[in-house]
Amino acid sequence: MLLNCLPKRLFSLELAIDPEPVEMQIPRMYLERYSLRLARLGMSEQGRFIVAEPKEPPSVISARNLVNAVCKIDVRPVAICWDAMDLGFMRALSSEGIAYIRDERNAFLPFIGAIISDEVLGASPAAPLSPQSQRIVLNLIAGRWVDCSAGDLARLCGKSAASVSGYLSEIAAIAPGLIAREGKKRILCDAGLSTETLLDGFEDYLRTPVIERIRLKGTIDRVDLRAVDALLSGVSALSYMSDLAHEDSAPTIALEKYQLEALKEHMGDKWLEAQWYEPAAIEIEVWSYPVDEPSDVSFDTTGLQCVDPFSLYVACAKSNYKDDRLLDAVEQLRRAICQK
């Protein structure tokens, strides 16, 4: 277990913690990561709760999952107790409504309406990940960029070391346990968490990669699309990764900004955008980051690859579909990627 030095008093009240772990029928993986003990702040019943002390550096994801598991079988609130929390970790826990105790000057116990902090934490939800940070997270969830150093990620992303340092800080603010250290190196790891657990933990911080949609009046030859490495996306790709019926009359493709400009220059006067009331022959999604592992699932049929399943899931899940067929297909895709 990590060595914790918990305070004896909080909010001018005595904090008493039972020395014996509490036995609880929750999945063993949580008990392997946390030690649970009974605690009491002051003498009132309202001040009784469970402290969870991590046996290894925790993450917001593991903390949330633990709290949810305990709450299913015990009405007492749970507080994460770790004296090595940084401000980012405390901010992330408080935005999730998760109680914590770091020391006598930094604690958040919403079940008694009490907070004390060296800095004002604020309770607003954490901001979504930036496009490149999201790209890194999706590759991690997919099992591709696991155990990569900051230098490795800089090469994979084609970004500077300073930029990658910022991306890792964004990730660490949500899940500090996913950023390990080897000497001076920072390593991106999955902490042994499943695909579904990682996706659950990051889902609220992901946003659509689509920054612009362009509808064109005329079709584009597949040879021209392949020349700019266009990928099927949206409903066009979803039909290849679910039971959704194929509808190829007006395909949706994904391009980055530079690819869009190259295609637009190549087409010249043939580039005619449709008005909102006019039918479109093709829809272009302009993406904020590249797709690192396109899928071949559609290539034999269309001659084009698809965006990868994880990126497609995020793009479709954030599209606010209303059609039940599309919602079912998105959920089917989610189940499929979580089984990998």
Describe the overall structure:
By secondary structure, the chain is α+β, with helices and mostly antiparallel strands. The protein folds into 3 domains: 9-116, Trna Endonuclease, Chain: A, domain 1 (3-Layer(aba) Sandwich); 131-205, Arc Repressor Mutant, subunit A (Orthogonal Bundle); 210-334, no CATH class. The chain has helices at 28-33, 60-71, 87-95, 131-141, 150-157, 161-174, 195-202, 222-227, 234-238, 257-267, 299-302, 309-317, 324-338, and strands spanning 9-10, 13-21, 34-41, 48-54, 78-81, 99-103, 106-109, 114-116, 148-149, 179-182, 185-188, 210-216, 231-232, 252-255, 282-287. Strands 1-2-3-4-5-6-7-8 form an 8-stranded mixed beta sheet. A hairpin with a 2-residue loop joins strand 10 and strand 11. Helix 4 crosses helix 6 (161-174), helix 5 (150-157) packs across helix 6 and helix 12 packs antiparallel against helix 13. The longest helix has 15 residues, at 324-338. Residues 120-125 have low confidence and may be disordered.
